[in-house]
Design a protein that fits this description.
Number of strands: 5
Strand order of the largest sheet: 3-2-1-4-5
Order of helices and strands: HHHEEEHEHEHHH
Distance between the termini: 56 Å
Structural class: alpha/beta
Amino acid sequence: MPRISRAKPPSPFRCFSSSPEVIRLVVLMYVRFPLSRRNVEDLLFELGVDVSHETIRFWWNRFGPMFASEVRRRRVSYMRGFRHWRWHLDEVFVKINGETHYLWRAVDHEGENLESYVTKTRDKAAALSFMKKALKRHGSPEAITTDGLRSYGAAMKELGNAERQEIGRHANNRAENSHLPFRRLERAMLRFRQMKTLQKFASVHANVHNHFNHERHLVD
C-alpha cells in the first residue's frame, strides 16, 4: 500500500515579516520582566530592532498563549511522574476599573506556577471551580496547603479530599510569594481594564515565569 504522508501544519509566523526568534524575544521580555510596552520598544531599538509598542501588544496577544502552552505541556507531562507532589493555594485581589476581582493561584513545592484563575467572588463556588480546573489538568497531589479561608475547606470537602488539606501560619508562604512578580508587572502595566485580559495575561505570565525558574542560585 502506498504510504500516506501527512501535511505539515503551516507555520504560525508565515504572515509576519519579522523572524520567529525576534517575536519570541519580544513576547518573553514583555511578559517576564516588569516593563511597559514602551520600555520594551526602547530596549529593542537599542539592539537595532525597530518595533512599535502597538506591535508588541499585538504579538503578545497572538503568540503569548502559544508560547505558554508549549511550556505548560512539557511541565505537566514531566511532573505527573512524581508521587510526592505538594500544592500551595492562595488568592489575591486585583482591581479592574475600581471593582475587586480575585486571582487564585496554585503553586507546587518547587515554586512552579500550576494554575491561575480569575473570579469575581471568593466563595465556595469560586474555589471549587478553580480546584476542579487545576486537578483536571495536573492530576492529584499528595497534600494541599492553604490559608484559613473557609472556601478551601468547603470545596475540598465536596471533592472528597479534605484529609489532604494542611493549614499553617507560615506553611503557605510559597504561594503568597508567588504573587510578587505579578504585582510588579501589574504596576508596570498600569493595571488591567478587562477580566478576560487579566485571565489571559496571568496564565501566560505563570508559564513564562516557570520557563525561567531554574533555581540557578542552587546550581554550582
